[in-house]
Amino acid sequence: MRVPARLVPLIAVTAASALLTGCFSGGDGDSASGQGKRIRLAMMQPPRSGLSPLSDDAFKLSRWSTAETLVKLDADGDAEPALATEWKQSGPSWSFTLRDGVTFHDGTKLTAEAVVNSLTRAAAASPKPRILDGVDLTAKADGDKVTVTTATEDPLVPQRLSSPQLSILAAKAYRGKTVNPVGAGTGPFELTKANGTSSAALDRYDGYWGKKAKAPGIDVRFVPDGTARAAALRSGEADIVEAVPVSQAAVLDQDLITEVPMPRTNTLYLNTEKGAFKDAAVRAAAREAVDAESIVKGVYEGRADVAEGLLGPALPWAAELRKPVRRAKAGDPAGKTITLGTFTDRAELPEVAAALQQQLQKAGFKVKLDVREYANIESDALAGEFDAFILSRATVLDSGDPAAYLYSDFASDGSFNISQLADADVDKALGKAGRTPTGDARRKAVIAAEAAVLGTDAAVPMLHERVIQGDAAGVADAAHDPRERELVTADTYLK
């Protein structure tokens, strides 16, 4: 049983704080202007791919306001101008007009050729960025315009191009097989140093095309240990702390934390290709064994929402459209041995795994746990090495539209198909959702696809998370973004 947060021994907090002592002192570089205070940022997950924008590291570049895309999303998920000022569709092709006066951090100009280069590299990457799952995309330069064409007519092209994984970087970033974003973005902050998995530094870019950054720079430290991140906020060693663990929230000054409902679902993925969960009846038994409410109360201390489906309260229309799902009847799991995996980077997940182990064992399963850092477990999870895997998954992270997430995770050829699901009805529903124009019809098609997935019991949604962000008393205008795209913006500064 977990020790309540208020009873965490002082020695543990002191030891965690010691992990950060001196980390932010002096910074990694001074602002050219020498005015104002640099923002000290403690982030949860270290880079996994050298900050390549073609990986999930792209969202770090986005949250630091250093790499930008042709399009960005408003609060409702609709596309609005960024590096492109306008766009027009003609069948499977979209023409994007580029913004004038934009330069990369190395001084070179934003051109149609530079945009084509970035998009072409992303489209040819292996694996592809999730936002391009099932999409055959080509880009062509035409004066100050870029024409983006897909193999079939795609109503979501502008939203796809808002994904941080499709950031536009200078030509110098693309040398050999790697992509190096240092000094190659267009945002209000220039990435000047990337020190492996330990730290990064950014300076204000005075040649920025838009509003100049108020802060002179950002000093980033990657701190996977949640207690250490919380201790950094408590001790004043960090100004902004990403993803404060629920267990630490209660012992922090409540004025310093913000709770944001997230389009993020904590889901139990079941391997449908091999092992015990190849049998639909056994998957149904696992689904019935899960007591999500007790996990919300016990692990998340009520700071989460019990899931009714894969899409949560951050998308309020989902609950309004959802209907009961037909599922298989539960079989007898007695004697079935399964391996349940998850990762340590999100502090609550090991506790969720322990709670699920007890629930599944009570139902008759024999459960072995395998818990590691995400960087050391992702490849095994994607290769189907686990019978079951617990994942905290953002459902609209890439495009503002959940159809891309559903395709990535549950289509037969989805690049993030941890359940190894290959179901013709699911593929058909996902295809329809992807083809339907934006609006009410698309939302209904998305919910139909969600129902098709839930009917297989390949995924058991348990809860929808709320992110807890820590901002020191002197922080002004830090972003609190449900989509995890923004954090330090041009408007963010220290008083």
If you had to describe this structure to a student in words, what would you say it looks like?
With 495 residues, this protein is of the alpha+beta class. The protein has 14 helices and 21 strands. It has three domains: 1-51 and 59-64 and 187-239 and 472-495, Periplasmic binding protein-like II (D-Maltodextrin-Binding Protein, domain 2, 3-Layer(aba) Sandwich); 67-180, Dipeptide-binding Protein, Domain 1 (Dipeptide-binding Protein, domain 1); 261-466, Dipeptide-binding Protein, domain 3. A hairpin with a 3-residue loop joins strand 10 (189-195) and strand 11 (199-204). Helix 1 crosses helix 5 (226-235), helix 12 (402-410) packs parallel to helix 14 (440-456) and helix 13 runs antiparallel to helix 14. It comes from Streptomyces hawaiiensis. GO terms for molecular function: peptide transmembrane transporter activity.
List keywords for this structure.
11-stranded mixed beta sheet; alpha+beta; D-Maltodextrin-Binding Protein, domain 2; 14 helices; ABC transporter substrate-binding protein; Dipeptide-binding Protein, domain 1; 495 residues; peptide transmembrane transporter activity; SBP_5; 4-stranded antiparallel beta sheet
Radius of gyration: 23 Å
Low-confidence stretches: 1-19, 26-34
The overall pLDDT, averaged over residues, is 91
CATH class of the largest domain: Alpha Beta
Shape: globular
Question: What is the rounded distance between the termini?
Answer: 42 Å
DSSP helix fraction: 25-40%
Major sheet: size, sense and barrel closure?
11 strands, mixed
Quick one: how many beta strands? Answer: 21
* Class by SSE composition: alpha+beta
Tell me the domain tally: 3
CATH fold-level label of the largest domain = Dipeptide-binding Protein, domain 3
How large is the count of helical segments? 14
Q: Examine the secondary-structure arrangement and name the CATH architecture of the largest domain.
A: Roll
Percent of residues in beta strands?
15-25%
CATH superfamily of the largest domain: Dipeptide-binding Protein, Domain 3
